[in-house]
């Protein structure tokens, strides 16, 4: 019977732990963070849904995000020995040629590789531990090894016992969590809004427990922001730091009914009205944050006088959504570790591991003597490559992309200080116009990074672009916000009518999500054709094919083919 990846991970874990119990110096690397809930799935080592990668040494190819040397098992049970040097290719080859010859690996796309013949991955792993691992160990121990050939890469080392023991305890915690079948609740199940600003009656009901993304689309002025504000008012029970969020004067005699998912689904709806007495009201979710469309100013900018408002106001969870501008937290100063002392070291390691995956073109992050993070950038910037740069000196695109994630991280850290892994934060996050200020590549990347970094958060976002919907995970809810003279602002849910994973941007734009009738250029020559290829690479291929056909079909050649055809008919 074919085994699942989680079963393969457990088999490998059991075998390696047997070796460790016999020899305390036998150490190996675990997955360090629960990004994309991989540890919750039982993926104890690096890899994805298609393969497992276990290493016995320190050293990472930062470009491929894999260990330098590792034993790989794919989902079919096939195994191989892999050497990765994609981040130094074109500079200096990282591995000693003698080592490559001794373990019989051959050049591959990412570096060097050798497949094991047996289909039994446990048997292959045993053979590797007996034959190739001792050879690699010997080369790494050698004082004259060639592992410092590139300025990009640190020398390879053996795994530290302290790191191994710390990660082993974390793996055991997740193994117990899987055994106990723990579930995470606190996401939005039902929301009903009446008489809130332009909203007369809006209801989004029966949101599945597994729904992590709720999208709001609609034309300008339809009321998307009002829906987000009403949801925020309900989740906060109209209280943010003992001050009302939505007053009767500004939003009317509204009533908001909020119901969250719980283990037994026994939580009654919470009814929120513009009550002036808010001091005893609390946010209904453990984690909560709101962002308006203006998200380009950070608290580093406030230090140099760009923003003069009190930062105490900007600390409110709902400030950015209810005010014209919000100030995001960033890493321009010493990073505020607010976790309890026993979590700080682990939290810092998890933070750095996530940032290395999130930030483009950053191959290493270290702390200086004052505890400030320095970022090493793989670019032509010599300073950033050799000495590292503080966050505020990184390229503006890098800073703007990560500022939202960092602000969210800092807020969640304050709200849930006992959490040691970013992926374990729970709560609800509201973002208005998530696509604004971002290139289409980063619009999609932001969705992917938020989903992977915070897999237990529920995101409720508005967008004017089809690109963020390309990153919509399964069970996503999509609502189109509309406005009518009699109905006021209302919502039509369309996710039950549309299969997002099957749609491209053009079809999303012309679907009920955006409702565009025509997406071709109205100013084109009406006699020309509209290109209907799915990707631009297909357009280029079609152009090249037309060119080749035209080159072949000269008038002389065309006449020759016509004559041949006529002769055959005779």
Structural description of this entry:
There is one protein chain. It contains 18 helices and 22 strands. The protein folds into four domains: 176 residues, no CATH class; 171 residues, Rossmann fold (3-Layer(aba) Sandwich), CATH 3.40.50; 85 residues, no CATH class; 34 residues. It is globular. With 570 residues, it is an alpha+beta fold.
SSE blueprint and pairings:
Blueprint: H1 5-22, E1 46-47, E2 51-54, E3 57-58, E4 60-61, E5 66-67, E6 69-74, E7 79-84, H2 97-102, E8 106-107, E9 111-115, H3 121-130, H4 132-141, E10 157-158, H5 161-180, E11 188-196, E12 199-204, E13 213-217, H6 224-235, H7 248-251, E14 255-260, E15 270-272, E16 288-291, H8 299-302, H9 311-314, H10 319-322, H11 341-358, E17 362-367, E18 373-377, H12 382-386, H13 396-415, E19 427-431, H14 440-453, E20 457-462, H15 467-470, E21 477-484, E22 488-493, H16 505-510, H17 536-552, H18 555-569
Parallel strand pairs: 13-20, 13-21, 16-19, 19-20
Antiparallel strand pairs: 1-2, 2-6, 3-10, 4-5, 6-7, 7-9, 8-9, 11-12, 11-14, 14-15, 17-18, 21-22
Give a brief rundown of this model.
The chain has 570 residues and is an alpha+beta fold. The longest helix is centred in the first third of the chain and has 20 residues, at 161-180.
Uncertain segments of ≥5 residues (pLDDT<50)? 302-311
Gross geometry? globular
Number of strands: 22
Rounded mean pLDDT is 82
